[in-house]
């Protein structure tokens, strides 16, 4: 089995396509079952966030696995595979490992260095484990990816600015209101805020708004008990979900972060606010995919809407600005890098170096593990030879007692095991090195070992999507 990652993100597709592909927590088990039903997919994990949907899989053939996963994703998106293919990025084998580690480290995020992806990856792994769709390869990959992400955050300052999708959205919204890059409310204009949704993103929004200096924060959620618990943790006030209209009438900012498949903020809910001629502009941050804000809300007078599409465009623009300042060679360090909403170049480089080291370590583990069937086959062949020879001894020397036969069998087995111990250990060590697969091949040839072969890694042709560089 080989690793294959197939995904769509804000870099390859617009929000409408991401909305059709987005998978809620209660839908992931069904999607995992659908993936495991495919011919070439042996393990699967689905990571669905506000700006990406990715399938991590162990497949028996590259093209066959790609075709299977592409078909499942196209079915979910309600389009043909040919229409979906231009938006997919594909990483295979070592590239898949590197992609997973970069994602966990926050290097592939819309907001570089954000730490929320670690929790999202951990949740995706927990679901795959609970439903037994993650086998040995994905268990090892995900556990190592989580460790790499923690190491990148611990050993570098990639997240020193505390960047997240929430801070990026808030910065964009406040700059629209006040004409300058800021992440906090001006002292002379304190704001009241409403957070709709009490999940992980809702909690992050509450913490961010509290740090930014929001005056009074309300929380609304369909599950009232959860909203009350979250409100208590952040000195906020829980409001009943059916009283959204009245809460909206008295706030200056609303953050939408639910998992609802349908919009929760509609123009009708803002009717009371529109009738108040003294109301200040309303800043709306829609952090949900699918979108929580209905079409038309952003066109209302006095409403400033910041959604995932606008955040993605701004992130790409800031990345371009940073690249222009740093230069092609990347030799100039920007101490003021945080002003662009990006970690300093040295921090990104340090995190990338950690990923490179960890990818090689994982590949060493893979190469060492791949030789295990050969070692097992060698020991099995030795056991067959010993058993056959002891059978011949029984026929030639029927006069031996059972105790004598046991002594002979024990001695022969011990001699064989001692002879095989050092070669077994050494071939595992050598196999872990680059090019080490040749040792397993030589061992199989020398002892004429038969190893059950998986389907050819290239396999049957399928979706015509090139393997990507880092997306």
UniProtKB/TrEMBL annotation:
Instruction: Spell out the InterPro entries in the cross-references.
Output: 4pyrrol_synth_GluRdtase, 4pyrrol_synth_GluRdtase_dimer, 4pyrrol_synth_GluRdtase_N, GluRdtase_CS, GluRdtase_dimer_dom_sf, GluRdtase_N_sf, NAD(P)-bd_dom_sf, Shikm_DH/Glu-tRNA_Rdtase
Which PROSITE patterns does the UniProt record give? Answer: GLUTR (PS00747)
Report which reactions are catalysed by this protein: (S)-4-amino-5-oxopentanoate + tRNA(Glu) + NADP(+) = L-glutamyl-tRNA(Glu) + NADPH + H(+)
**Family matches, as Pfam families:** GlutR_dimer, GlutR_N, Shikimate_DH
Query: Which keywords has UniProt assigned to this entry?
Result: NADP, Oxidoreductase, Porphyrin biosynthesis
Tell me where in this chain the Glutamyl-tRNA reductase N-terminal domain is found: 6-156
As one GO molecular function, the record gives: NADP binding
User: Which residues of this protein are catalytic?
Assistant: 50
Q: Does the keyword Mitochondrion apply?
A: no
Q: Which residues form the Tetrapyrrole biosynthesis glutamyl-tRNA reductase dimerisation domain?
A: 350-449
Q: Where is this site: Important for activity?
A: 99
Its pathway is: Porphyrin-containing compound metabolism; protoporphyrin-IX biosynthesis; 5-aminolevulinate from L-glutamyl-tRNA(Glu): step 1/2
Q: What class of enzyme is it?
A: oxidoreductase
Q: List positions binding substrate.
A: 49-52, 109, 114-116, 120
Positions bound to NADP(+) = 197-202
The chain positions of domain Quinate/shikimate 5-dehydrogenase/glutamyl-tRNA reductase read 191-309
One GO term of the biological process aspect: protoporphyrinogen IX biosynthetic process from glutamate
Under Enzyme Commission nomenclature, its number is 1.2.1.70
The UniProt family comment states: Belongs to the glutamyl-tRNA reductase family.
- What role is this protein assigned? Catalyzes the NADPH-dependent reduction of glutamyl-tRNA(Glu) to glutamate 1-semialdehyde (GSA).
User: What other note does the entry give for this protein?
Assistant: During catalysis, the active site Cys acts as a nucleophile attacking the alpha-carbonyl group of tRNA-bound glutamate with the formation of a thioester intermediate between enzyme and glutamate, and the concomitant release of tRNA(Glu). The thioester intermediate is finally reduced by direct hydride transfer from NADPH, to form the product GSA.
Please give the subunit comment from the record. Homodimer.
Name the chain's protein. Answer: Glutamyl-tRNA reductase
- Organism this protein belongs to: Planosporangium flavigriseum
Q: Lineage from the top down?
A: Bacteria, Bacillati, Actinomycetota, Actinomycetes, Micromonosporales
The UniProt gene name for this protein comes to hemA
């Amino acid at each position: 089995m080989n690793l294959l990652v197939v995904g769509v993100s804000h870099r390859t597709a617009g929000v409408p396509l991401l909305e059709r592909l987005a998978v809620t927590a209660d839908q992931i088990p069904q999607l995992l079952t659908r993936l495991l039903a495919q011919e070439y997919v042996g393990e699967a994990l689905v990571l669905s966030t506000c700006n990406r949907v990715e399938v991590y899989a162990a497949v028996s053939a590259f093209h066959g696995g790609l075709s299977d996963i592409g078909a499942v994703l196209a079915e979910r998106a309600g389009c043909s595979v040919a229409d979906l293919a231009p938006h997919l990025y594909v990483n295979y084998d070592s590239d898949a490992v590197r992609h997973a580690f970069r994602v966990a480290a926050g290097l592939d995020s819309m907001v570089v260095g954000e730490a929320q992806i670690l929790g999202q990856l951990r949740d995706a792994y927990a679901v795959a484990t609970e439903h037994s769709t993650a086998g040995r390869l994905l268990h090892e990959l995900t556990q190592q990816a989580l460790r790499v992400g923690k190491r990148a955050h611990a050993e570098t300052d990639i997240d020193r600015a505390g960047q997240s999708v929430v801070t990026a959205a808030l910065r964009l919204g406040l700059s629209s209101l006040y004409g300058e890059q800021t992440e906090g409310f001006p002292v002379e204009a304190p704001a009241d805020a409403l957070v709709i949704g009490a999940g992980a993103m809702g909690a992050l929004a509450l913490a961010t708004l509290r740090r930014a200096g929001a005056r009074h924060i309300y929380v609304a959620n369909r599950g009232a008990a959860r909203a009350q618990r979250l409100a208590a943790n952040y000195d906020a006030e829980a409001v009943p979900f059916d009283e959204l209209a009245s809460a909206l009438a008295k706030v200056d900012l609303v953050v939408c972060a639910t998992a609802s498949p349908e919009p929760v903020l509609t123009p009708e809910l803002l009717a009371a606010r529109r009738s108040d001629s003294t109301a200040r502009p309303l800043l709306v941050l829609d952090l949900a995919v699918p979108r929580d804000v209905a079409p038309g809300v952003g066109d209302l007078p006095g409403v400033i809407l910041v959604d995932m599409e606008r955040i993605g465009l701004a992130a790409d623009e800031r990345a371009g600005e940073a690249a222009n300042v740093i230069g092609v060679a990347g030799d100039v360090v920007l101490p003021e890098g945080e002003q662009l909403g990006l970690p300093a170049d040295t921090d990104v480089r340090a995190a990338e170096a950690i990923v490179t080291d960890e990818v090689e370590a994982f590949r060493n583990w893979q190469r060492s593990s791949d030789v295990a069937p050969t070692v097992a086959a060698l020991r099995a062949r030795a056991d067959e030879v010993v058993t056959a020879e002891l059978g011949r001894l029984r026929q030639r020397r029927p006069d031996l007692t059972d105790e004598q036969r046991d002594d002979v069998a024990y001695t022969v087995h011990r001699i064989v095991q001692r002879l095989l111990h050092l070669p077994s250990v050494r071939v595992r060590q050598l196999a872990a090195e680059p090019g080490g697969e040749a040792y397993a091949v030589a061992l199989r040839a020398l002892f004429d070992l038969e190893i059950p072969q998986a389907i050819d890694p290239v396999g049957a042709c399928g979706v015509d999507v090139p393997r990507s560089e880092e997306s």
